[in-house]
Amino acid sequence: MISAYPGAAVRAAEKPLLDAGLGPALMQRAAYGLYAACAREVLARRGSLYGAHVTVLAGSGNNGGDALYAGARLAGRGAGITAVLTSEAPHPEALAAFRSRGGRTIQLSRAVAECARLCAESDLVIDGILGTGGKGGLRGPAAELARAFTGRISGRTSGIDRRPLVIACDLPSGVDADTGQADGEHFTADLTVTFGAVKTGLMAGPGAVAAGRIECIDIGLGSLPGPALYRLESADLAQLLPVPRKTDQKYSRGVLGIAAGSATYPGAAVLATGAALATGVGMVRYLGPESVCRLINASHPEAVCATGTVSLVHVQAWLAGPGAGADEDQRRRALEAMASGLPAVIDADAISHVEPGLGPQVILTPHAGELTALLGRLGETATREQIEADPLRYARRAAELTGATVLLKGWATITAAPTGETYSQAEATPWLAAAGSGDTLSGILGSLLATDRSNRDTASPAPGHYAELAAAATSIHGRAGTLTAQSGPVEPSMLPAAIRTVIGELKKGVVIDSV
Ligand SMILES: NC(=O)C1=CN([C@@H]2O[C@H](COP(=O)(O)OP(=O)(O)OC[C@H]3O[C@@H](n4cnc5c(N)ncnc54)[C@H](O)[C@@H]3O)[C@@H](O)[C@H]2O)[C@@H](O)CC1
Ligand SMILES: Nc1ncnc2c1ncn2[C@@H]1O[C@H](COP(=O)(O)OP(=O)(O)O)[C@@H](O)[C@H]1O
Ligand SMILES: [K+]
């Protein structure tokens, strides 16, 4: 499990060490970690550090100091290094070390276009303009540089290998360390080497997109307060996924009730059912129109289909909403599912029936547009753009207002418990942005809820338990999408096969890397 902390918490943990005069030692540890990651990535890309063109972007603070010291070490390995100084007062000792290794410098304010060209022609750009001391987006010449550099490299069509590798020092400059907001100009990295602890802003919203892969370097910080954000990794998922016991039968494994689909949108029910079955539920009981029952049984003969009401069927969890449209029977079933006290995924059209006063066992799964509408009905105004810019804040707010667990979809999907526990998963691929993809996510989550043993073994699961299961479903969905995308575009109906593979490999301990 990865734990992430706000920038201020990391700075507070650094403070006693800085007060004790350990600042230079911490900076050397951070710089060494950054250098080692840069060396490894350049070697992987071009086979040799010798003769590699490296540009260090160095701001006025300690972030620039870290980057200059790392650059000095790369110069010592034969790389050709130039530092672009974005301020008149760079870290003095780091600059002296950099120059003593033969590094040359350019003052940004006098040569923005030249610096942008230099970056675009480099093998590696180290972004050390702003770290946790940054406030807001980049300004002035640094903002112009970010714009000009992005413009130059986005025009390249010949694949990522022809673009310079960008490695961010601690966090991409211009990204808010706590929220991941990046309203102004900012850099986008392939890899972020972060120090002491992962910052929450690297795992949420635009910051998660800008960070690329995240690597955390231990610099010997003291204790940190409880993390603000978690991310499940393969070992966590393997532990969470239930395995049938020798004494199990289909009912004890778990039955999922699905109230999805309508005469207008039958396909969503088929996709959700397929994904739930692939995730390993004991039985799917489907409730919906007869025409949809026939369609489901044509592709999933194992699903037990009926046209009845929620109170008449015995299940361990419910999934309601995908493809329900304006179907009145499905609306009633969604309301009954929410009121049943059983774990329930409330997706798509059913989200518009949500009222406050739910419990954490109800998991709402909106995208930003659906959350805009939901918050609006609860008396809060937030546009889709505002939610996309700061998903942590709005997912938590929706959980607080409804009492439910909230899964807010995106590149990094956030799941927030009403008690505050929050997860971010980012294994997905943009190929998953396709109609029907969310239906498969809801099927995976429904299956995890139905087969969740803690649901039966303990009276009330630990706070944040449902947010953790929702994060697990998100991760499986993302990994299944990434696996499918390895051979071409993702059609959501292909996902169930990949879900089975991902779960099988997780159980064997094989990791399918995210993109
Ligand atoms: N003190 C140490 O020895 C350690 C420092 N570390 C590094 O230090 C960083 C924090 O250093 P600082 O506190 O010096 O802060 P930064 O290096 O993030 O930069 C702060 C400077 O940037 C200016 N600034 C803020 N926002 C700006 C904006 N939007 N546009 C232009 N300029 C802006 C500020 O006025 C200030 O001069 C961490 O991110 C990390 O990289 C870590 O390596 C841990 C150890
Ligand atoms: N750019 C993206 N990168 C990664 N995953 C994405 C992206 N856009 C959407 N997704 C994922 O694809 C799914 C889309 O869900 P949703 O919008 O509900 O689709 P639908 O309702 O059509 O089934 C979600 O799991 C979401 O997180
Ligand atoms: K930076």
From TrEMBL:
Taxonomic superkingdom: Bacteria
Domain YjeF N-terminal: residue ranges: 10-227
Binding residues annotated for AMP, in chain numbering: 409-413, 438
Catalytic activities: (6S)-NADPHX + ADP = AMP + phosphate + NADPH + H(+); (6R)-NADPHX = (6S)-NADPHX; (6R)-NADHX = (6S)-NADHX; (6S)-NADHX + ADP = AMP + phosphate + NADH + H(+)
Record's cofactor remark: Binds 1 potassium ion per subunit.
Residue intervals of the YjeF C-terminal domain: 233-506
Positions that bind (6S)-NADPHX: 62-66, 131-137, 170, 268, 323, 367, 439
The entry's keywords: ATP-binding, Isomerase, Lyase, Metal-binding, Multifunctional enzyme, NAD, NADP, Nucleotide-binding, Potassium
CC cofactor: Mg(2+); K(+)
Annotated residues for binding of K(+): 63, 127, 173
The protein's Enzyme Commission number: 4.2.1.136, 5.1.99.6
Subunit text: Homotetramer.
Cited function: Catalyzes the dehydration of the S-form of NAD(P)HX at the expense of ADP, which is converted to AMP. Together with NAD(P)HX epimerase, which catalyzes the epimerization of the S- and R-forms, the enzyme allows the repair of both epimers of NAD(P)HX, a damaged form of NAD(P)H that is a result of enzymatic or heat-dependent hydration.
Database matches in PANTHER family: ATP-DEPENDENT (S)-NAD(P)H-HYDRATE DEHYDRATASE, ATP-DEPENDENT (S)-NAD(P)H-HYDRATE DEHYDRATASE FAMILY MEMBER
Family: Belongs to the NnrE/AIBP family.
Protein name in the entry: Bifunctional NAD(P)H-hydrate repair enzyme
Species this chain originates from: Arthrobacter gengyunqii
